[in-house]
Amino acid sequence: MTKLQPALFLPIALIAVPLIEIALFVVIGGQIGLLATIAVVVATAVAGTMLLRHQGLAALEKARRSAEAGELPVAALVDAVFLFVAGLLLLTPGFLTDAFGLALFVPPLRGALAGWAWRMLRAAGAVHVHGRPGTGGEGGGARNGMGPVIEGHWREVEETPDGTEDGESPWRG
Questions:
Q1: Environment class of residue 114 by beta-carbon count within 10 Å: exposed (0-12), middle (13-18) or buried (19+)?
Q2: What distance in Å separates the CA atoms of residue 97 and residue 24, rounded to the nearest whole number?
Q3: 68-85: pLDDT as tens digits
Q4: In the chain, how many domains are there?
């Protein structure tokens, strides 16, 4: 058996998730009734909105504190992304999406998913790390306490009296 290709995952999910949701609506709706089913869907949307507001603001505050301390707020931003996805899942009507959305509000699960996503990105070659943050390793982390090293290309540009660079037109349309 071959491994499921990432390119196939999204189309399969776009077909499977709505089918599963419809089946769950039929089964659960048959057990608890139409009005109770609608009430559960609305309640999870309201609860998700409240949880998202509370935990989302906490994640943004954590990111702000990290930035003020001179650190990259990567963990807080990853948390914020997962919380945004959780909110979207809870606002989407359905029991399966609600279950996944509520699960994403559990911090240890978010951490585990973030670790898994990081490993997948590294395995796919989407990210490359030269050192660990704060270790002073080549290309990563702080060197002499001056913050992270960002590699790139540069060139010196002299500004002319009219505010343009090297006599370029100020209209860069």
A1: middle
A2: 11
A3: 888 778 878 888 888 888
A4: 1
Return the residue matching tokens 């990105």. Answer: 121
Q: Please report where in the chains the tokens 């060139």 appear, as a residue.
A: 155
Q: Which pLDDT does position 115 carry in this prediction?
A: 86
Mean pLDDT to the nearest integer, 55-61 = 82
Domain that includes residue 59, residue range: 15-105
**DSSP state, residue 150:** -
- Please give the Cα distance from 1 to 22 (Å, whole number): 29
User: Measured between alpha carbons, how far is 63 from 69 in angstroms, rounded to an integer?
Assistant: 10
**pLDDT above 80: residue 3:** no
Q: Report yes or no on 123 lying in a domain.
A: no
